[in-house]
Amino acid sequence: MCGIVGIVSHSPVNQMLYDALLLLQHRGQDAAGIATNHQQGFSMHKANGLVRDVFRTRNMRSLPGNTGIGQVRYPTAGSSSEEEAQPFYVNAPFGIILAHNGNLTNADQLKIEMFKNDRRHLNTDSDTEVLLNVLAHELQQATTGYSLDPAALFKAVTMVHKRVRGSYAVVAQIAGYGLLGFRDPYGIRPMCLGFNESERGIEYMMASESVALEGMGFRFLRDVMPGEAIFIDLDGKLYNQQCAENPTLNPCAFEYVYLARPDSVIDGASVYGTRLKMGEFLADKIRREFKSGEIDVVMPIPDSSRPAAMELALKLGIEYREGFIKNRYIGRTFIMPGQALRKKSVRQKLNAIVSEFKGKNVLLVDDSIVRGTTSREIVQMARESGAKNVIFASAAPPVMFPNVYGIDMPTRDELIAYGRTTEEVCREITADALVYQDVESMKRAIAECNPALKNFEASCFDGHYITGDITQDYLDRIELARKNPQPVIEDVVRSQLNLNLARVE
Asked: Any alpha helices (H) in 164-229, and if so which ranges?
């Protein structure tokens, strides 16, 4: 889970990139980076921390140029080391700087290929560095001489699609040429394109969410299509081409449930609108399961569940109240690394208004339940504030399977719903009752906001991995890797080479 942005302008882009990253800060609070391209080459600054902490005046002054890319990161592959903050850079061919949102599911195999065949060395365990080196190798293969044209770029991206598996939305700068953006053939991770008509000509921007475009004064043009590559040269001329053989659009359902800002539109569906619909469908289920008068008040767990809770209360004709006040200076607990840190931060982040709970049967609405840490603490806070009964409702279905496409849900034993019934989860979070959204209702809520959307990446809910390369053995390996420190890249490669030699013998 990350946020990326790329801009080609007729004026310095450092401030624009900084402001755009602030608009995408919700997508990653672990690290931030900006890289710009100018006559002397590339300039880059990146570090762990929030955007406002990473960049100081001296850093911004060191980022000249009219084209650049930026990224905010929450790590799902590799580690939280500052060395793995993005963007990443290679000097050949041409000089490329790249930032990526997503997760490669065949990164280990690609590392072996690069060691054996491409003769490229990796310095980190980040799959973004893997993706950058695959692109660099394919660009080298696609070009002749020292010049680069859009046709060669698109040929290279075509080969990237053939070699790389998983989810990826990418922005990359090619030194002296322009900005390249592309999206995986399944369209899992979002990316959109916008433009601005300045006095000196049209400027372009690509970003993870439409809110970044609109907040910077750019007009939304369209979403980048699955498998499509877009190249904008330094003169502001745009080229595009479909580079995948059989692209299909399967946007990540969890973007609408939780990750994206409500004022964004992703693949033609309003995030706010989908959350209202989720509340509407959840109300239908609650009406079937509870009698009139069993619920006195509906309360959201701020902030992302608020639209669903408001619509649910409206449909049920039950009073809507704000029972929790959020400290906006505490990070999102779902994306905080470490269970102990998440648990501690819940009470720092939320404070209950005691008078709203006392003696009432309270229906608490959250966007989802992942590990259950936050839910359990919130139920206890409601009880301590005098709630008579606490009913918990999730606007999303049970999260029962690992997510391998860029969201931090890699192990089954971390998911509270894995291997448990709804009643068992209810006991775990100490609620009096628990209601989950149905999977089909969640998908229907998104599709009703854009009927053109037919399929979704919803593997953490339904266990269906659309890329077709996820096996039980793969899931076992990523769980083992999470529980035990990963060996360095060279050790992984050597062990695989030794295994191959043994098979030959």
From this structure: 210-215
| Residue type at 406 in one-letter notation | G
What integer is the mean pLDDT of 376-391? Answer: 96
Q: What is the pLDDT of residues 397-416, one digit of tens each?
A: 999 999 999 887 768 888 99
Contact 453, 268 (CB under 8 A): yes
Please write the tens of the pLDDT for every residue from 150-161.
Answer: 999 999 999 999
104 to 40, 125, 140, 460, 470: CA distances (angstroms): 33, 12, 22, 17, 11
Contacts for 411 with CB less than 8 Å, ≥ 6 apart: 402, 478, 479, 482, 483
- Contacts for 291 with CB less than 8 Å, ≥ 6 apart: none
Taking each helix axis from N to C terminus, what angle separates 271-289 and 306-316, rounded to the nearest 10 degrees? 40
Type of residue numbered 38: H
Identity of the amino acid at 148 = L
146 vs 247: which has the higher pLDDT:
247
Q: Specify the 3-state DSSP secondary structure of 197.
A: strand
As given in the structure block, the two tokens for residue 68 are 């650049």
Q: Which residues are catalytic?
A: 2
Question: What are residue 322's phi and psi, to 5 degrees?
Answer: -95, 110
**Terminal CA-CA length for the chain:** 43
Question: Which residues, at least 6 apart from 487, have a Cβ–Cβ distance to it below 8 Å?
Answer: 495
- The answer for residues whose C-beta is within 8 angstroms of residue 153's C-beta and 6 or more apart is 139, 142, 174, 180, 229, 231
